[in-house]
Amino acid sequence: MKETPLTVDFISGAVDYRRRKGGGRGQDLPKALGFRPGVTPDIVDATAGLGRDAFLLASLGANVTLIERNEAVHRLLMDAMARACDSSDTHAEIIGRMTLINGDAKDILPELNPQTVLIDPMHPPRDKSALVKNEMRQLRDLVGADPDCAELMHVALGVASKRVVLKWPRRAKGIAELPKPSHQILGKSTRYDVFMTGLAKAGQS
Hints:
By secondary structure, the protein is of the alpha/beta class. The protein has one domain: Vaccinia Virus protein VP39 (Rossmann fold, 3-Layer(aba) Sandwich), CATH 3.40.50.150. The chain is 40% helix and 17% strand. The protein has a 7-stranded mixed beta sheet with strand order 3-2-1-4-5-7-6, sandwiched between helices.
């Protein structure tokens, strides 16, 4: 059986359903990133991947800068954003809040002086035998593992003025080289480790 090529789609399917029916700002990810009444953070998604989280955050009103270092995935994102812009005024407005950059986030983050950074690296292999979704396996085949995840986190923690959020499997061990998160938000299969940075702790959040 021929495998369906990896694509990025912001117009239909699970991504658009999440936009319309996913619970808005009450979802775990927006809460972890600091969305609250009257506050919509500017966000850098340092590991854009398939762009789903970035699209959701932009649909909630945030300006989101996506950084993707893999050129093939970057092209998929560019194509999906262009198609979404052409599909409806609503989608065009959302895409208008998304800025896509091709490059290594470790080099780019210091130039951006970000407030809030989201990092969603390729997650460690599961201990259980459950099959990974086909598209995630294809994405892993394209981008490989993220052996420099700890290094990226340290860069983000050094430049983010408000917070850094690490998206990670709920039951997976943390990254040994990192400090303890300020707090966590736990979902069914995913957790968000929230690291409040020095400026935020000083009352500038």
